[in-house]
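Review form for a predicted model. The reviewer records the input and the model, then writes brief findings.
Reviewer: anonymous (R2)
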Amino acid sequence: MAQLADLEARVRVLEDIEAIKKLKAKYFRCLDKKLWNEIEGCFVEDAAADYGPDIKLQGRKAIIEFLKNTLGQEPFISAHQGHNPEIEITSDTAARGIWVLNDHLIIKTIATLNGWGYYEDEYVKENGEWKKKSTKITRILEEWLTTKR
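Model under review:
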């Protein structure tokens, strides 16, 4: 019987890891398609975000407003990708993950940014659903190209 319980626990961890991967994919899709109402569901209410040296945000509402007011405005177009997830389930309701980030941002008629770095996320399971508790981007390389007018 102990073997069955162990197997069930291992399957639950794999299911949780897969759910977190889907959450991150949804986050990227919503960012790029500017689905602000849908992206709200990716975060807990008191989530925190660190999007760079001068961009520290507290609360889901502040995070969504920041995203809307930057990536959501013309002339921004974005394409975000996350790769090679390192996800650790730390309890039945908590996890953390590190993702390789590649993003491509176009600011029409001004510039293009190709960026590489890492996302460090903390997750919590709320009412049976995984959500972001915190997220932090650490950039390791940015390539800016000025657009000719």
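Findings: The chain has one domain: 2-146.
Further findings: The longest strand covers residues 129-146.
Recommendation: see findings above.
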